[in-house]
């Protein structure tokens, strides 16, 4: 297996804060600029798994950068530069404690709830008689609270506003941006023979404006089906060929793990880890239409530090 980056502990000039999330390590510079490092950590069921995935951070960072650039004309975003294959540098924003999830198809956790009898998700009524992987009449937005640790929780638009998590005005903007981003992502996926099934977006505020932050349209935040064969598989009730992290979740479920108390993460063999890496690279090449070029894996920390320092020096001029 290639080297992986699962932990960072930088101290950049002017550093005022650092945050280590499930996958990303974020360093704040002078309370104004953020350095976001996409590590090779992988999480599922809100649990960080014990093995890193080679090149996963590079895949996530480069897909996100591609889509941030491609959607900047319809939604303002935080990105300033990508000085390293695993790093994006951008403006610090005050993040909302809500994730905007939008679903075009009934699958994943939504299907599991539907199959169990649920007909309302985050305040959205679901039609009767739907089948797994069926397209919704129109995409639905099913927000969650954003948890620093543990599980995110489903929440409705009305609850978000009533609890003061987001103002009614800002929520309307987030909702409009979410639909516009999903429409653009769907269009770009279709050009590459893929279906953007569902995804999540995060927003913050800067100078009074709602801004798109974090990653978008990556295999960690999104689910893709192959368009070719979708209808035939759906009609036969067969699983869809997909590019997303769902196959990792399915593997964990098959091995008796769903993130519940007392459950043990199954052994992640080198063969399994490499297969996950290959799937991430496959998605990168499909969704971007570009060949994936593996960045040098030796001296990862030193490479990232040098590239970030060069970028920060440029920005301070």
Q: Explain this structure to me?
A:
This protein is an alpha+beta fold and 317 residues long. The chain contains eight helices and 16 strands. The protein has helices at 56-71, 108-115, 157-162, 168-191, 230-236, 246-254, 270-288, 300-316; strands at 15-20, 24-29, 33-38, 43-44, 47-48, 79-84, 87-91, 94-106, 120-121, 124-125, 134-141, 144-145, 194-206, 209-213, 222-226, 242-244. The strands form four sheets. Strands 8, 11, 12, 13, 14, 15 and 16 form a seven-stranded antiparallel sheet that branches. A hairpin with a 2-residue loop joins strand 9 and strand 10. Helix 1 (56-71) runs parallel beside helix 7 (270-288). The mean pLDDT is 94.
Task: Give the helix/strand class.
Answer: alpha+beta
Unreliable stretches, pLDDT < 50, 5 or more residues? none
Cα-based radius of gyration, to the nearest Å: 19 Å
Mean of the pLDDT scores? 94
Q: Termini distance?
A: 40 Å
| Total strand segments | 16
Number of helices: 8
Main beta-sheet annotation: 7 strands, antiparallel
What does the secondary structure layout of this molecule look like, with pairings?
Elements: E1 15-20, E2 24-29, E3 33-38, E4 43-44, E5 47-48, H1 56-71, E6 79-84, E7 87-91, E8 94-106, H2 108-115, E9 120-121, E10 124-125, E11 134-141, E12 144-145, H3 157-162, H4 168-191, E13 194-206, E14 209-213, E15 222-226, H5 230-236, E16 242-244, H6 246-254, H7 270-288, H8 300-316
Helix pairs in contact: 1-7
Structure summarized in a few sentences:
33% of the residues lie in helices and 27% in strands.
């Amino acid at each position: 297996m290639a080297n992986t980056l699962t932990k960072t502990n930088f101290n950049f000039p002017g550093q005022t804060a650092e945050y280590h999330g499930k996958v990303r390590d974020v360093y704040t510079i002078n309370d104004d600029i953020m350095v976001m490092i996409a590590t090779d950590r992988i999480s599922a069921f809100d649990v960080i798994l014990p093995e890193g995935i080679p090149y996963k951070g590079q895949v996530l960072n480069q897909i996100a950068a591609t889509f941030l650039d491609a959607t900047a004309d319809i939604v303002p975003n935080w990105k300033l530069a990508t000085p390293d294959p695993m790093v994006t540098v951008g403006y610090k924003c005050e993040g909302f404690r809500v994730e905007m999830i939008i679903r075009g198809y009934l699958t994943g956790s939504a299907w599991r709830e539907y199959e169990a009898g649920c007909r309302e998700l985050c305040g959205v009524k679901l039609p009767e008689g739907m089948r797994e992987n069926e397209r919704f009449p129109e995409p639905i937005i099913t927000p969650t609270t954003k948890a620093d640790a543990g599980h995110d929780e489903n929440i409705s638009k009305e609850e978000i506003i009533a609890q003061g998590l987001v103002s009614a005005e800002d929520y309307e903007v987030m909702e409009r941006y979410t639909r516009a981003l999903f429409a653009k992502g769907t269009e770009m996926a279709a050009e590459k023979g893929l279906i953007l099934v569902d995804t999540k977006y995060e927003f913050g505020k800067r100078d009074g404006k709602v801004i798109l932050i974090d990653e978008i349209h990556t295999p960690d935040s999104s689910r893709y089906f192959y368009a070719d064969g979708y209808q035939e598989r759906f009609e036969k009730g067969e699983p869809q060929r997909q590019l997303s992290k769902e196959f990792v979740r399915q593997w964990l479920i098959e091995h008796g793990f769903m993130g519940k108390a007392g459950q043990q993460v199954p052994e992640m063999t080198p063969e399994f880890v490499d297969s996950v890496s290959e799937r991430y690279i496959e998605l990168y090449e499909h969704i971007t239409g570009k060949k994936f070029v593996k960045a040098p894996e030796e001296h990862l920390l030193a490479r990232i530090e040098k590239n970030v320092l060069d970028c920060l020096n440029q920005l301070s001029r």
